[in-house]
Amino acid sequence: MTTTDPAPTAGARRREQRAWYWYDWANSAYITSVGTVLIGPYLTSVAERDACGRVGTTDNPCDGNVELLGLGLSAGSLVFYIVTFATLLSAVVLPIVGAIADRVQSKRTLLARLAWTGAAAACCMFLVAGSNWQLGALLLVFANLCMGASLTVYDAILIDIAEPDERDHVSSRGWAFGYLGGGLLLLLNLGLVLGAGDLIGTDTAVRISLLSAGLWWGGFTFVAYRGLRDHPPADIPPGDSRLESGLIRRSFGQLWTTLRHLKNYPQTLLFLVAYLFYNDGIQTVIYSSSVYGQKELGFSQAVLIATILLVQFVAIAGALSFGQISKRIGARRTIMGGLVVWMVIVSAGYVMPAGEVVPFLLLATGIGIVMGGTQALSRSLYSQMIPPGREAEYFSLYQAAERGTSWLGTLVFGLVHQLTGSYRPAIFALIAFFLVGFVLLVRLDPRRAIREAGNAVPERV
User: Fold this and answer.
1) Among the listed residues 4, 233, 269, 228, the one whose alpha carbon sits nearest the alpha carbon of residue 99
2) C or N terminus of the chain, fewer CB within 10 Å?
3) Where is the secretion signal located (predicted)?
4) 6, 11, 14, 15: CA torsion to nearest 10
């Protein structure tokens, strides 16, 4: 068991930072292999089997819909509705997690328990087979919820282990390390799908890959848990009424309390709204890429896995490069430049020719360059704008729009597909999210936001 040191040296901070990176390595396996590549097309195929298995004659043809609570939902849009539901649920649950995390003596223990619970749900995805999409939907909601909750705690730990001027660098290193870990497991899964698919069937190979992602997530979380230290909670802000009664009981009203408190920091609120929009666009592009590539462009599962693998390794260089650029022009301007590239990417995706691998790979390379950089710098910039003592509470709002938990984007993508029957207008519709985010960032004054939160202003923001 590690010990608590209220005033760690620079060397101790670096050791903790290296341990902190391991959780990015751990959870990225789930985000990449499950969330980005496998579960979307696989669960869609499972739902399509259910939709067409319920009808058996030409007089009652397959309409491509599955039934949920009496509603007929397009099997092709089902996954996006599931992710939307998971995120709406997280809007209630994550502030509770954040309130608890800001008061517990051991954030690393809370992080590990949430991660191990989510990893167990991911392992159980191995059981999703045949036409049983309902089990897959339930496990996906639960695993995504645990992922968001664990990342709420994980992001809050960044403030404990890095000084303000270190955070862009540390956050970018974490993202890069995560892409490396997620990419390595994806490479193994690629070998399994390509090499063993003919022997055990593609579905079985995919299910084994889902299991491997859960085991990877849970196993490497232990490395981070052992390397991190316990940091005592910060002094509770004056007038914090959560002290007046039990934490759990008070926490169920925490979403409203946090949002009401956030109005005292208008620039922080402005950034959070901007992030909500542009990150919803990023997450939906990431989440929908495999479905778009398979269903709209006609690529095989092997091509999609190889493409996402390319994105993973390009993103390592992208995240590190964005961290270096931010040292010269600041995080806000660097993020804005990334959003311009994102708008170009979704426009190119709309006109992407079906079956042409080279243009698809060029588009994937562009995604890899900007994907990690914009997200890593967003995390570090936001950490500067949070009032002391409320780190996890505020990051719970941030995580409601973070990796794999976007809801506006997935909802729009699913609705546009259902209305048009095509994924092309659905992918192009996401340009609005990047445009709104860019306009809001133009209005942001990050130095004012940091001062209003009561934090020291770093040299470059």
Assistant:
1) 233
2) N
3) none
4) -80
Q: What percent of the chain shows pLDDT beyond 70?
A: 88
pTM above the 0.90 mark?
A: no
Q: With beta carbons less than 8 A apart as the criterion, state whether 176 and 85 touch.
A: no
pLDDT tens string 314-348: 989 998 999 889 989 999 999 999 999 999 999 99
3-state secondary structure 378-416: HHHHHHHCCCCCCHHHHHHHHHCCCCCCCCHHHHHHHHH
* Average pLDDT in the chain: 84
Sequence-distant (6+) residues with CB within 8 A of 163 are 13
* 93-117 burial code (b ≥16 CB/10 A, e <16): bbbbbbbbbbbbebbbebbbbbbbb
CB count in 10 Å sphere of residue 211: 16
pLDDT score, position 31: 87
At what angle are helices 78-101 and 39-53 packed, to 10 degrees?
Answer: 130
pLDDT tens-digit readout, 169-183: 899 999 899 999 988
Q: What is the distance of C-alpha 368 from the center of its chain? A: 15
Q: How many residues does this entry show for the chain?
A: 461
Listed by start position, the domains of the chain span 11-56+64-452
